[in-house]
């Protein structure tokens, strides 16, 4: 059975979780798998402390929205 899609379904308003991940994602340089089965995130060199703290406090959002788990430990590019 096909579900009917209304025109306004396409214009979904982002949730606060989406906005948090968007803020954090702007400062990602890369991510790589680690030994714990999660990913370690490498941030750009000039990432503000506010973004790094937001990342540490928001790691639980990644599996649900981004589709992968991240470690709360991160690196800064050299």
Describe the structure.
By secondary structure, the chain is an alpha+beta fold. The chain has a domain at about 15-65. It is about 30% helix and about 25% strand. It has a three-stranded mixed β-sheet, with helices on one face. A hairpin with a 5-residue loop joins strand 1 and strand 2 (about 40-45). Helix 1 crosses helix 2.
Largest sheet: 3 strands, mixed
How would you sum up the global shape? elongated
| Sequence of strands across the biggest β-sheet | 1-2-3
- What is the helix tally? 3
Q: Whole-number radius of gyration?
A: 15 Å
Tell me, rounded to a whole number, the average pLDDT.
87
Note the beta-strand portion: 15-25%
The helix/strand series, from N terminus to C terminus, equals HEEHHE
Cα-to-Cα separation, first versus last residue:
53 Å
What are the low-pLDDT stretches, counting only 5+ consecutive residues below 50?
none
Structural class: alpha+beta
What kind of assembly state do the chains in view correspond to?
A: single chain
Helix content: 25-40%
User: What's the total number of strands?
Assistant: 3
């Amino acid at each position: 059975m096909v579900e009917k899609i209304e025109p306004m379904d396409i214009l979904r308003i982002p949730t606060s979780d989406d906005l948090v991940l968007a803020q954090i994602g702007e400062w990602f340089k890369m991510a790589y798998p680690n030994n714990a089965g999660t990913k370690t995130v490498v941030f750009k060199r000039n990432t503000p402390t506010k973004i790094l703290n937001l990342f540490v406090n928001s790691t639980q959002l990644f599996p649900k929205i981004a589709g992968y788990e991240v470690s709360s430990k991160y690196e800064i590019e050299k």
